[in-house]
């Protein structure tokens, strides 16, 4: 009886050890099967593209008390990209964002930003950009320059940007991505609210980082009737 009990105990222990090991082996095998293949992007076709608001971020970040960042974005915007496949530098970009749609995650702060202390949304409801030049920078980079209008002030600014090649979505549309970033001084646009700190710097930073992650689409052919 003792030998039987010992044998049974040994088998039970072996099973307990084997369970997690078999789980690891099966998980590893499953992971290998589900690993995505390397993406083969399509060439980007020439033509007119619209910014997809569901998959685009018009964002910004600004220093608070010189110790942290406040991030925000605009929910309402529209824009177009005219893409020249033969010569990317002849492409153009335009977009408009509604100031009223600003969102930093804090309602009282959002409301304050819409006042004359900052954007004055009632008087200047839109923020706009219209490109004037596209230049190639390095092997895979570009520089987009254009007229940026905020709070009634228009200045030329430049966005270094990169392009992600095209894909066909499940509905037959062609899409590609644009990742762009730049910095502006808010005081150049008459947004002067804030005070200098005794330790140096400002309670609200002057430099604003603009982050654009754009997904643009070109509708596929209409289905045959």
Structure description:
With 225 residues, the protein is of the alpha+beta class. 18% of the residues lie in helices and 45% in strands. It is built from two helices and eleven strands. An eight-stranded antiparallel β-barrel has the order 1-4-5-7-8-9-10-11. The relative contact order is 0.16.
Topology:
Elements: H1 2-34, E1 47-51, E2 57-64, E3 68-74, E4 77-83, E5 92-98, E6 102-103, H2 107-113, E7 126-137, E8 141-150, E9 153-168, E10 174-185, E11 204-218
Antiparallel strand pairs: 1-4, 1-11, 2-3, 2-11, 3-6, 4-5, 5-7, 7-8, 8-9, 9-10, 10-11
| SSE run | HEEEEEEHEEEEE
What is the topology, as strand order, of the major beta sheet? 1-4-5-7-8-9-10-11
Q: How far apart, in Å, are the first and last alpha carbons?
A: 80 Å
Query: Helical amount among residues, as a percent range?
Result: 10-25%
List keywords for this structure.
alpha+beta
Task: Summarize, please.
The chain is of the alpha+beta class and 225 residues long. The chain has 2 helices and 11 strands.
């Amino acid at each position: 009886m003792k030998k039987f009990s010992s044998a049974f105990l040994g088998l039970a222990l072996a099973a307990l050890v084997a369970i997690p090991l078999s789980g690891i082996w099966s998980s590893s095998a499953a992971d290998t099967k589900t690993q995505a293949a390397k993406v083969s992007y399509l060439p980007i076709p020439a033509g007119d593209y619209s910014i997809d608001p569901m998959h685009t971020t018009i964002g910004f970040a600004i220093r608070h008390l010189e110790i942290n960042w406040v991030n925000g974005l605009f929910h309402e915007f529209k824009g177009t990209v005219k893409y020249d496949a033969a010569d990317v530098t002849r492409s153009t970009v335009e977009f408009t964002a509604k100031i009223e749609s600003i969102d930093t995650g804090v309602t009282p702060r959002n409301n304050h930003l819409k006042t004359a202390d900052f954007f004055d949304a009632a008087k200047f409801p839109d923020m706009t950009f219209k490109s004037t030049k596209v230049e190639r920078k390095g092997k895979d980079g570009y520089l987009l320059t254009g007229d940026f209008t905020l709070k009634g002030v228009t200045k030329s600014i430049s966005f270094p940007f990169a392009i992600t090649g095209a894909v066909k979505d499940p509905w037959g549309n062609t899409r590609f991505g644009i990742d762009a970033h730049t910095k502006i001084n808010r005081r150049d646009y008459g947004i002067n609210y804030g005070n200098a700190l005794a330790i140096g710097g400002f309670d609200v930073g002057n430099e604003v980082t603009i982050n654009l992650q754009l997904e643009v689409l070109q509708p596929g052919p209409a289905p045959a009737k």
